[in-house]
Amino acid sequence: MTEALAAWTPRALSILRIITGLLIIQHGMAKIIGFPVFPMYANVQPFSLIGAAGFIELIGGALLILGLFTRPVAFILAGEMAFAYFIGHFPKGFLPLINGGTLAILYCFTCLYLSTAGAGPWSVDAKNNQA
């Protein structure tokens, strides 16, 4: 049983990266292109702090999905999510459940893990390392 699970560990890493990318890209899409429609992001200015975050999430999420430049992209996204937590959530209270920062923390530490673990076998990065 342990050997069977161990064989799936690299694939699970790729799945974690792809799902994380899909979740992050939706935030960027909502902020930059207005889809999906999210009232809070209805009037985001591209050169505002939220607009800059949207571009980072849109581009970073796409690169994570592809598994291209995974380590540096994930590191940048981890930093962005830490910044988002401390700027947007922490001032509302200490506990993440109460201040709404749970997802920002999860994104931050998932991206931090991806920045150290890499993209996994189902990625452009893995294909480039084979060549």
UniProtKB/TrEMBL annotation:
Family membership: Belongs to the DoxX family.
Species of the source: Bradyrhizobium lablabi
Membrane topology listed for this record: Multi-pass membrane protein
GO cellular component: plasma membrane
Ranges annotated as spanning the membrane: 12-35, 47-66, 73-91, 103-124
Pfam families: DoxX
Annotated compartments: Cell membrane
InterPro entries assigned: DoxX, DoxX-like_oxidoreductase
Keywords assigned by UniProt, alphabetized: Cell membrane, Membrane, Transmembrane, Transmembrane helix
Name listed for the protein in its UniProt record: Putative oxidoreductase
